[in-house]
Amino acid sequence: MTEIVGSHDLLLVTLDTLRYDVAQELAAAGRIPNLARHLPGGTWERRHAPGSFTYASHQAMFAGFLPTPAAPGPHPRLFAARFAGSESTATGTFVYDTPDLVSGLAAVGYRTVCVGGVGFFNKQGLLGSVLPGMFQESHWEPEFGVASPTSFEAQVACAEKVVADLPADQPLFLFVNVAALHQPNWFHLPGATKEAGDTRESHAAALEYVDRHMGRLLAAVSARRPCLAIVCSDHGTAYGEDGYTGHRIGHDVVWTVPYAHFFVDEAR
């Protein structure tokens, strides 16, 4: 990261609430081709989330604690605030002298932009303003939110405009919180009804929907210079496993998340 920061644009996409098992199944079945073509080996890395719900997980990620590889560590981190005794800060880690990654990247010249999705990014109250308030520029509108069947394509259109309006020599850190996987997601599954509610199958259909528009987002962020993309979930969610529904609980389907990072070459 010490060589990448400054020379590359950076994209962080959190596929809010996406389960590892569903993501892996769809990649193996060829149902998310636009994402799978970028995944190392065509597969997601199994990691542990830094939090069991959106606010806690994003606070940790913005402090440099991305999802941790699901194997004994310590594991070197891509980003870290400077502090004594860190066992996960390595030679190649981008180390910043600010309280969080967002301001750390701003301090070295990046334009930091948030395209919000779920309620913790809607800026409609003090709590919903904390996370987007960390960025120099933030965007949210109801069409980006969980109740919109076209949320991700609306977010992509916003991201495309952000990139188009940016000076050519201005490096970009773009964060997109994708709301489509979060409940309600029943409307992404053909034939599903509101009365029947969300299911593991509608969760999968929502990921397929996101994949259909992911190519546009990756094309936008690589239009000016090479880009490092980090795509992961912030936490999973339960659909009846062991009697649990939802998240903010300590179940394996919540703590286990998909993760990938990869380079997107500058468009030619």
Question: What coarse outline follows from CA principal-axis ratios?
Answer: globular
Low-confidence stretches: none
Helix content: 25-40%
Strand ordering within the main sheet: 3-2-12-9-1-8-6-7
Description of the molecule:
Helices cover 28% and strands 20% of the residues. By secondary structure, it is α/β, with parallel strands linked by helices. Helix 6 (151-165) packs parallel to helix 7 (200-221).
Give the structure's gist in a few sentences.
This protein is an alpha/beta fold. Helix content is 28%, strand content 20%. The two termini are 24 Å apart.
Keywords summarizing the entry:
268 residues; eight-stranded mixed beta sheet; two-stranded parallel sheet; 8 helices; 28% helix
Which helices and strands occur, and which strands form pairs?
Layout: E1 9-15, H1 20-28, H2 33-36, E2 45-48, H3 54-62, E3 68-69, E4 79-81, E5 94-96, H4 101-107, E6 111-115, H5 127-130, E7 137-139, H6 151-165, E8 172-178, H7 200-221, E9 227-232, E10 238-239, E11 245-246, H8 252-255, E12 256-264
Parallel strand pairs: 1-8, 1-9, 4-5, 6-7, 6-8
Antiparallel strand pairs: 2-3, 2-12, 9-12, 10-11
Helix pairs in contact: 6-7
